[in-house]
Amino acid sequence: MPTKPDRRLDGLDVYRVGGAVRDARLGWPVTDVDWVVVGATPEAMRQRGFKPVGRDFPVFLHPESHEEFALARTERKSGHGYTGFEIHASPSVTLEEDLARRDLTINAMAETPSGELVDPFGGRDDLEARVLRHVSPAFIEDPLRVLRVARFLARYAGLGFVIADETLALMHRLVASGEIAHLVAERVWAETEKALGEPWPDVYFQTLDDCGALAVLMPELVADDAQLDDALGRLQRLPEDIASHEAAPWRWARLVEHLAPERRRRLAERLRLPKAVSRLAEQAACTHRLVHEEGAVDGERVMAWLERIDAWRRSERVPPLIALVSLDDAALAEDLALAWRLAMQILPKALVDEGYQGKALGEELARRRREAIDEVMTQAR
């Protein structure tokens, strides 16, 4: 993946690093390119027009490509969690020292701008062997790496990747030590959201469960192993018209739709979920109950479902949720679609023209919509 010469790089010792090097060798799409600069100072970068953006360590954006260029650095553990590190960046830090702080060997490879590989930790061999292996014992200093390894496995499991036994053992140790509990909620969700967008998101949660991390970070999911297995099986079952960029919140909704309301709320609070994600999970849960609770799905239940998802004000919510129903019960989905279409044809304006106003208008509108829904659902039974 050679890069054309750039006058701004003259005199700088730069290397392409991390995911771009890994994914190019896997034949995986390369979306971001990051660089490490060895032997430079922040002033040297600014003089070449690079824009400083790093808050905790020196990172710069190329003035034209906007790719990230970070000064080579080392890290030393100084506290709990993934933020408990002292960063040292200076011209004396070597490329190998910078690569040694990375989590996995497949992420600790570098390339020169002309494409020459620098691989001090055997990342290429592990790529070929399809193994996720830690770079050094320092892996155990950062609990976030448990989630990152699980996320990488969720990305590459279909290619035959596995976690090295010794790396899995360190993941277990990180959980047993209590370090995993020091991860802040926002960072746990950030990694989880990325994992939900990977090709095999169920692998992420299964890996966290296998090493004990899921019970610490999301205990509401592990109260019942059978329910967890069912939930993981639902992750890939989404309505066809869900766009790829929307997959993560929908997959989360499918994962938690079976949980009792209080458990689902506790989990949302524990992870400090974005409101949009929590709302979608609530809508999916209402839909799950509509389909799976005992008894006939009659007009009363359908009307209550529409009200719970705020369908009359947010009509755009209804079609994808009906599509969700179709995955389990195609006939019910057809009935819901017809009932919804007929109910929506009853408009307030027509009732105003008949003389209804105020509270009476709202009551009559609800009555007629319920009547239309009842007719469809009665015929369906």
UniProtKB/TrEMBL annotation:
Binding residue positions for Mg(2+): 32, 34
InterPro entries in the record: CCA_bact (IPR012006), NT_sf (IPR043519), PolA_pol_head_dom (IPR002646), PolyA_RNA-bd (IPR032828), tRNA_CCA-adding_enzyme (IPR050124)
Start and end residues of each Poly A polymerase head domain: 15-133
Keywords, ordered alphabetically: ATP-binding, Magnesium, Metal-binding, Nucleotide-binding, Nucleotidyltransferase, RNA repair, RNA-binding, Transferase, tRNA processing
tRNA nucleotidyltransferase/poly(A) polymerase RNA and SrmB- binding domain ranges (all copies): 160-221
Catalytic EC class: transferase
GO biological process, one term: tRNA 3'-terminal CCA addition
Chain sites annotated for binding CTP: 19, 22, 102, 148, 151
Catalytic activity: a tRNA with a 3' CCA end + 2 CTP + ATP = a tRNA with a 3' CCACCA end + 3 diphosphate; a tRNA precursor + 2 CTP + ATP = a tRNA with a 3' CCA end + 3 diphosphate
Binding site for ATP: 19, 22, 102, 148, 151
Enzyme Commission identifier(s): 2.7.7.72
Pfam families with a match to the protein in the record: PolyA_pol, PolyA_pol_RNAbd
Cofactor(s) required, per the database record: Mg(2+)
Coiled coil ranges: none
A Gene Ontology molecular function term of the record: CCA tRNA nucleotidyltransferase activity
Other information: A single active site specifically recognizes both ATP and CTP and is responsible for their addition.
Family from the record: Belongs to the tRNA nucleotidyltransferase/poly(A) polymerase family. Bacterial CCA-adding enzyme type 2 subfamily.
HAMAP family per UniProt: CCA_bact_type2
Role this protein plays: Catalyzes the addition and repair of the essential 3'-terminal CCA sequence in tRNAs without using a nucleic acid template. Adds these three nucleotides in the order of C, C, and A to the tRNA nucleotide-73, using CTP and ATP as substrates and producing inorganic pyrophosphate. tRNA 3'-terminal CCA addition is required both for tRNA processing and repair. Also involved in tRNA surveillance by mediating tandem CCA addition to generate a CCACCA at the 3' terminus of unstable tRNAs. While stable tRNAs receive only 3'-terminal CCA, unstable tRNAs are marked with CCACCA and rapidly degraded.
Protein name: CCA-adding enzyme
Native species: Halomonas caseinilytica
Biological classification of the source: Bacteria, Pseudomonadati, Pseudomonadota, Gammaproteobacteria, Oceanospirillales
Gene: cca
